[in-house]
Every structure is written in C-alpha cells, then in structure tokens.
Amino acid sequence: MAGVTHHTHSPTTTGEPYARRLLRSHGLRCTAPRLAVLTTLDRSRGHGHLTVAQIQQRLTDAGHEVDLTTVYRTVSTLADAQVLHALVIDERVTSYGLTDTPHHHAVCTRCGAIDEVPAELLSVALDQARLGSRFALPEIAGLTLHGLCPACQATTEP
C-alpha cells in the first residue's frame, strides 16, 4: 500500500507562484489543471508522493472541480516534461512526486511507506552501480531501496 511518504528534505516553496516558476522553467504553459496539480503536490511534500486518485481527492477537498481523467492527463504531461516523476512500487500503484530536489526512495516492504533519500547520500552507491554494471546510469537514476520503515520495525521488536 504505497502513498505514505516521510520526507527527509523540504525545499522552500510557495504554492502557486512556485508552480508557475516551475512550469515556466520547463517551457510549459501555466494552465489551471497544471497549477492545481503542482500546488497540491507542493503542499503535500510532508505527505509524500501521491497517486492520481489522491491528487484528485485533495483538489476536490480544496474546492477544485477536476475530473480524474484531467488529473491523469496532467500528471502524464508533467512526467513527460520531467517536472514530476512516476514512482511505481508494484504494478498496481503509481505515485507522483516533484523532481525539483534530486532524491531516491526507500520503500517499506510491509506497509508501503516511502522515504525520500537525498541523492547526495547515495552518490557513492550510484557510482558503484555504474562501475559494477554495463549500464550507462544518469545522475538522476532513481534508486529504490527496500526494507522496513521505523513503524514496522517497532512492531516486529519484542
């Protein structure tokens, strides 16, 4: 059950003005759905990556009337433009997060909680992966680590 994320970093952002700057920096128009989705993800940083259904629900809760199809199209466009990245934990759940701060992910194998790990903390691991494989891995290569989150560790201890 993905969707619970604990962030280890938190860039300074300011809602819609930030979303406008982000879209412009990627050469994208500032449409109402794009601004709404980015503002929602920006405000949800402490709650992590969100699925399309979670984004749509938060938009509805905030008074926006945006249908699920529009949210799907919007996140797809933003992911194609590398404003967002899609994190697929298993074949059933895809969640989306902002790409403005380089990071990797640690995923709980029991509850699906996700922690963002700042990229600089895993730079040596990424360098070693390049050396140990035949793959050309870019700096933004997404590493996903699997283990138990603190909450699940606490429930397994005697």
Mean pLDDT: 82
Low-confidence stretches: 1-12
Globular, elongated, flat, extended or rod-shaped: what is the shape?
globular
What radius of gyration results from the CA coordinates?
Answer: 16 Å
Estimate the strand proportion.
Answer: 15-25%
The largest sheet, given as strand count, sense and whether it forms a barrel, is:
4 strands, mixed
Cα-to-Cα separation, first versus last residue: 25 Å
According to DSSP, the number of beta strands is 6
Secondary-structure element order, N to C: EHHHHEEEEHEH
Helical content stands at 25-40%
Q: Which structural class fits the helix and strand makeup?
A: alpha/beta
Number of helices: 6
Strand order of the largest sheet: 1-5-4-6
What does this entry show, briefly?
With 158 residues, the protein is α/β, with parallel strands linked by helices. 39% of the residues lie in helices and 19% in strands. It has 6 helices and 6 strands; from the N terminus they run βααααββββαβα.
Structure description:
The chain is of the alpha/beta class and 158 residues long. It has six helices and six strands. The strands form two sheets. The chain has a four-stranded mixed sheet with strand order 1-5-4-6, with no helix packed on it. Strands 2-3 form a two-stranded antiparallel sheet. Strand 2 and strand 3 form a beta hairpin. Helix 1 crosses helix 2 and helix 3 packs across helix 4 (68-80). The protein is globular, with a radius of gyration of 16 Å. Mean pLDDT is 82; it is low at 1-12.
Present the secondary structure layout.
Layout: E1 5-6, H1 16-25, H2 32-43, H3 52-61, H4 68-80, E2 84-90, E3 93-98, E4 103-108, E5 114-118, H5 123-132, E6 144-147, H6 150-156
Parallel strand pairs: 1-5, 4-6
Antiparallel strand pairs: 2-3, 4-5
Helix pairs in contact: 1-2, 2-3, 3-4
